[in-house]
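agent> fetching stored inputs for the iron/sulfur cluster docking request
agent> found them:
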Amino acid sequence: MNFRPYALLAEVTYRCPLHCPYCSNPAMYPGGNELTTSEWQRVIDEAAALGVLQAGFSGGEPLLRPDLAQLIAHARQAGLYTNLITSSLGLDAKRAHELREAGLDSVQISFQAEEAVLADAIAGARAHEKKIAAARIAREAGLPLSTNVVLHRRNIDRLREIVAFAASLGAIRLELANVQYYGWAFLNRAQLLPTREQVHTARQIAEEEKARCREQMDIFYVLPDYYEDRPKPCMNGWGRRYLTVNAVGDTLPCPTASSIPGLRFENVRARSLAWIWSESESFQQFRGEDWMREPCRGCPERTRDFGGCRCQATLLTGDPANTDPVCGLSRIVP
Ligand code: SF4
Ligand code: FES
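agent> prediction call returned; pasting C-alpha cells
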C-alpha cells in the first residue's frame, strides 16, 4: 500500500522555559546539536515534495529559535499551511508581526488552567499573565488563535471556567486534551490521573459547552484513554499520515516513539525524508496490518483504530506489538 504523509511536526528545539509535569519532551534529551536553518529548510522542501500539506512548528518552545520566521516563510513558499504550537513566552508585538509577515497561518497557545496561581504552579513558572498578554498580541497581529489545555486531576474540575476563559481570549478553537501518559506524564501518572467520576463529569460538561459555544468557538475534547473501552486510532495509524522530525534531526512516526525500546530512528542528516518515510525500519515496523497479533489481526475494528497506540502498548505491557491494553478485547492486564 502506498502511504502519503499529510503533516510534518517540526520540533525545532527541546529548550523550553516551562516544566509541565505531563510533558512528552522532558529534559532527558541532550541540548545542542539542533538542526541548522538550512537543514530545516531542506527538510521542509523534502516534506513538501513527499506530499505533506501542513507543518506544525513545535518544541520545546519554538520561539526560542531566532530563525523561526525564516523557517515559517520557507514552509509557506513550499506551499505548506503553517501552525505555531507554543507556550507563547517570548511572543511580543514585534515577533508576532514578523511571524505574520512570514506567512504564519495560525497559532496555538497552551494554557495550564484559567486561573493564574494554579496555572503557574502546573507550569513551574510565572507564565500565565504573560500568556494572556501574548494571546492578545497574537490576535492584534491578525493571527487566528487556538488554545490548548491539558486536563488532569488538578484542573479537570474547572472545565466551565476554562471554556469561559478561552472565549474571553477570542480563541476560535479550544482543545481540551486529557493527559496522554507518555514521557514525564507516564512517570507522574499517579498524581495526574483523574478519578473515573471526574472524567465522567468532565465529558458531560465538555459536550454541553461544545453545544453552547458552537457559534463562537470549536471545542475539541480529547478523551482520556485509560477509561475508554476501545483505543484511539493513534496517529491515524503508524506511518500513514504523520511524521515528526525532532530538534536533532531524528525522524519518528510518532512524537513519542522514542519511548519504544529497540526502535532505531533515521536522521535527516544521513538520509532523505523520502527514504525514511518509505524504507526505514522504524516507519515500516507497525505500518499496515502485518505486525498485528490476535485479537487485532482478526478484528473488524482494525481498519478504524489500527490496533491503537504502540507507545501505550509498550509502556503498559512492555511489548509494542501487543494490542493496546486500553482495548476491552485485549487479554493483557497491565
Ligand atoms: Fe482495535 Fe485491536 Fe481492540 Fe480490535 S482488538 S478493537 S483492532 S485494539
Ligand atoms: Fe506513539 Fe500512539 S503515541 S503510537
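agent> quick read of the result: The chain has 13 helices and nine strands.
agent> awaiting further instructions
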